[in-house]
Design goal:
By secondary structure, the protein is an all-alpha fold. It folds into two domains: 4-57; 59-114, Orthogonal Bundle (Arc Repressor Mutant, subunit A). The protein has helices spanning 8-20, 28-35, 39-50, 54-72, 77-83, 89-100, 104-114. Helix 4 (54-72) packs across helix 7 (104-114). The N and C termini lie far apart (42 Å).
Length: 116
Amino acid sequence: MRAIRSDPILMKVLAVIRRRACERGLRETDVAEEIGVQSWSISRRLKRQAGRGFWQEVHRQRSRVAACLLQDSILSVKEIAAKCGYERASDMNEHFRKCYGMTPREWRRLATIWQP
């Protein structure tokens, strides 16, 4: 397995996913077209070098955005789910739990406890 940073195409893929993850309807082909590669190339590179697929990476990035919003805003979980590209808060809950091992509400509660 090569290091992710040694693959400039994969670095571009990850940058585009990071920037566009919260767009509803984002597809692997959209990312591929933006950087000028085939979509199968994205899948293969992500699996081989990052150990996760396209959608796993999208949900990982969405969860990161959600974690920041949960900590730094007063938006409801439902509103945050919508901002992060999810149609239903339950979808965000599922992916957030996989990423952080807790629900968004639990995360927010812990974040408020630890803030000075």
